[in-house]
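<given_protein>
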Amino acid sequence: MTGLVVVVAVLAAATAFGLWRRARDGRVTEARVDDLLGPDELGAALGERATLVQFSTAFCQPCRAARATLRHVAADTDGVVHVEIDAEHHLDLVRRLNILRTPTTLVLDGSGRIVRRATGAPRLADVRAALPV
């Protein structure tokens, strides 16, 4: 009987964690870092309105979906640029910005200040809503 209780408790905990993670995955939130990123760190020029910085790794499946979404927004919106950074080759930047998983997207304003952040593949509408005015 004790084994059954343990199995049910583990399944309930795993289900709760899965639901929590699904609800948070890709959600764009306010950035808690007051940091500036420039063209030297990004390897590309900043957008006039915003820069969408995506941290990816080579074998990250959700990174492909994030890449497509961010490229779409950058192509359709004036003054917005998409920059993809390989997290494995920029560990100093990953540590400095507390990037814990890929894909992670940072939304920078025109001056390079981080204003929003998303962990996981963000939704198209959320990315558009996160752009500075």
Notes: The beta strands are 28-30, 50-56, 80-86, 104-109, 114-119. The mean pLDDT is 89.
